[in-house]
Amino acid sequence: MDIQEEDRETLTARVRRGDLFTGQGNCRSRDVFAHVTSLWGVLCLIALRDGSQRYSELRRKTNGVSEKMLTQTLRRLEADGFVRRTAHPVTPPRVDYALTALGEEVAAHVAALADWFELNLPRIEQASTRAGPPGPACKPGTRAAD
Hints:
By secondary structure, the protein is mostly helical. It has helices spanning 3-6, 11-17, 26-37, 39-48, 55-61, 67-79, 101-131, and strands at residues 53-54, 83-88, 94-99.
C-alpha cells in the first residue's frame, strides 16, 4: 500500500489535497484536535497517565490553571471520550478522573510530542533566534492565557 492510499483520510492527506475544512466530520475532528492539543488539554492528559486522580490533584499538577479552565478542559476531554469521570456517593463528595483506553492512546502521543519539545528546546530557540526575535518566555509564577 502506498503512502497516498494509506493516509487518504488523515489530516496529512487532507493538507496535501488542500481540503482541510471540507468533507464530513472535519469540523468535529478539528474540535477534538483543539481540545487535545490545548495547553491545559496536554497537561491534563499527561498528568492522568499516572492513574486516576482527584480534581485537586490535577489542579496541583497543572500548576497555573484556573478552576474554570480545568473544569472546561476535563468536560471537553470527557465528552470526546478520553477521560472518565467517576463520582463517588460519599460525603464530602469525591470525584475521580482517569483516562479511558482511547485517552491512554492519545495521551501517549501527546506526551511524546511534549517531551520532544522539552528535550529539543535549545535547538528550537537557536533556530528561532536566526529567524527573528523569540516569543515571550514562560516565567515561574506566571500563567498562560486561559
